[in-house]
Amino acid sequence: MIKAVIFDSDGTIVDSEPVSFLSAKKSFQELYGITITRKDMLPLIGTGISNVMQALARKHNHRINLHKILKQSKKNYLLLVRGRIRIFPGFLSLFRALRRAGLKTALATSGHKEKLYANMKAVQWNLRNFDVVLHGDMVKRNKPNPEIYIRARKKLEAKPSECVVIEDSLAGIIAAKRAGARVIAVTNSFPRKKLKRAGADLIVGGFREITLAAIQRLGR
Fold first, then answer.
1. 4-15+85-217: CATH topology
2. In the chain, where are the structural domains located?
3. What is the pTM of this model?
């Protein structure tokens, strides 16, 4: 029986991946004169900003000052996010249904604290609505490592088989499966074939396709 649902944030609850790309692109251009593309960024979705910046630097064969570009990227993100993101349709209805049914909820994002808080402020969502909140600054290893989902599950006092994770990224799906959870993948960032290959148990076009019955079926 499913007792808890754990949500990813970027690209799952909020439509923030385009802003993440813009902030990374702007930072590389400003500091190093490098132009990165969406194609460069796509495979890195969900892996955490430090991993993203280092991977982009390797792809372009350029040495970077990680601390400096992280600082620049955070600054750019906070400037760009205002008025540019929204909560994906259907999330609020699903969240209310989960709470009415007595299921516990958590948010587990690879994003850093400032990004998470900026996102939630931009969409006027109170993080206290969740029973548990974890962000990338609270773990040593980001997705696809399962650490954040294992920690979320333990804080929710649920067994792996009692948890469903809702994700949009390949790294997030892999992390959740490694943590022993069932995974619902939304097609916000990747096509169905790639989500299935990553190990998703159920693939949907959005929150409006997720029902309590579908969630509970994953626990059988």
1. Rossmann fold (3.40.50)
2. 4-15+85-217, 17-80
3. 0.93
